[in-house]
Amino acid sequence: MSLTEIPVEFTSDEKGYYDRQCPNEKCEYLFKIHMEDWKEKASDEQVFCPMCGHTATSDQWYTHEQIEAIQEIAASYAQSYISNELDKMFGKMARSMRGNKYVQITYKPGKKISFVNNPIGQRPEWELEITCEKCQTRYSVFGSAYFCPCCGHNAVERVFNESLDTVQKMIESIEDIYNTFEKSYGKDKAESMCRSMIEGTLGDIVSAFQKYAEEIYKQIMPTKKVRVNDFQIIEKGSNLFKEATGKGYDLWLSHDEIEDINMLFQQRHIIEHNNGLIDERYIQNSGDISYRAGQRVIIKNQDAMRLLRYVRKLSDGLSKLGGMQNG
Ligand SMILES: [Zn+2]
Ligand SMILES: [Zn+2]
User: Fold this and answer.
1) Predicted confidence band at 113 (pLDDT cuts at 50, 70, 90)?
2) Mean model confidence pLDDT for the chain
3) Residue 132 CA: which ligand is closest?
4) Is 230 exposed, middle or buried (0-12, 13-18, 19+ CB in 10 A)?
5) Cα torsion at 279, 196, 128, 141 (round to 10°)?
């Protein structure tokens, strides 16, 4: 056994998972993969980070803790190796000098340093377990994830629904968030932070929807080039689907709902590109005459919740066009 071939054993967590960490220094995302799947399904050449999609060979995914534990084992091995070699060396020397009347070497071995090599355990198991719909790899994450570590598959449907759920929980708990902020930053700051969070949810919902609609469209029309921004405008997106499948957004939303969602999409545009200030283009594109140019748009919780509801209706409908099933 040479120093580079120390057998290191890993044991899984209670649920059978093995800790891994993204080697991309900007990411260092921690995740777990089922130990059997790691052995059987992960390829040596390419493993994907579930968070950032970075790829690297399979030997680069040790967590910081695992590397520390491996180093401890290696240090323990080196110490016991050296102590053994010293024993051997001095023992041999002592023996060869026996009978030499000028030099006498006696060597008494010190306390033996034994090599400790306990199996390396994992962090306690996490709640969220995901099975890849494409390759059936089981992995577990904290928070959320985008890519399967084995095949890199991006579970569009799941990621989309998770994003919407996160936004919804944030809107629903805005009062608690306000109270927490108030304690740390005072009333005024808490008020503007919450306002900005609610305004931000419009952007979150719209960008999640755009990405989702683009993916579904690509499944139906793999060769036609579309940009994700084509789905930023309700009418344009609806027309693309209508041309491709004969079904547009008006199949799932009423006329009034389409006008309303269009207005909310336009308000998001104003928030993201004009610092929330109404301009003539907004009034023209949204048909919303309750504002005049130069006013600031007002977004309330119920506006964000309404947008969420429309987007869910649309994506339900679109998922059937793309052949995706809602989990
Ligand atoms: Zn990563
Ligand atoms: Zn997979």
Assistant:
1) confident
2) 90
3) 2
4) middle
5) 90
